[in-house]
Amino acid sequence: MSNDFKPLELEGFLPYRLNVLAETVSQSLAGIYRRRYAISVPEWRIMATLGQFGTMTAKDIGAHSHMHKTKVSRAVASLEHRDLLRRTANTRDMRESFLQLTEKGMDAYRKLVPEAHRFIEALIAPIDPAEKQVFNRVLKQLVQRATELSAELDGPDAPAEG
């Protein structure tokens, strides 16, 4: 073992810190829609995606919201069971369905969106406007660079999984 070896300090490790931030913010915001509609984080992400884009497939929702297909499937079933979401078969491909919010789902979405906006405004209120711009730019750069690194690591020379 080299004398240069430094153990990784998790609390200072950027991926860990970003995950803690994302999870903390997500769970804090979840309190709003959990109290009012008993909606989970994956269910809210589906409602938010459908509220923004209208009709989509579960696969498209998963890609947009970065959720695994199993989480999407469970959340869709729950929302459908509570009449917040409607599923319509795709007549061109019976393996998939088109999903959209029901009127009850849209009503919940319209009531929750202003609360979500207020929560985010309260969260970022202490941050100087110039710092917000820098923060948003840095977030965008980190997502772009992580995507590039992932593509490089998954390139043609990547070792096979298994």
UniProtKB/TrEMBL annotation:
Keyword Coiled coil tagged: no
SUPFAM superfamilies: Winged helix' DNA-binding domain
Pfam families linked: MarR (PF01047)
Gene3D superfamilies: Winged helix-like DNA-binding domain superfamily/Winged helix DNA-binding domain (1.10.10.10)
UniProt keyword terms in alphabetical order: DNA-binding, Transcription, Transcription regulation
Occurrences of domain HTH marR-type (ranges): 11-144
Claim: ATP-binding is one of the keywords in the record: no
Organism: Stappia indica
SMART domains for the chain: HTH_MARR (SM00347)
Entries under InterPro entries matching the protein: HTH_MarR-typ, Metal_resp_HTH_trans_reg, WH-like_DNA-bd_sf, WH_DNA-bd_sf
Protein name (database record): DNA-binding transcriptional regulator, MarR family
GO molecular function: DNA binding; DNA-binding transcription factor activity
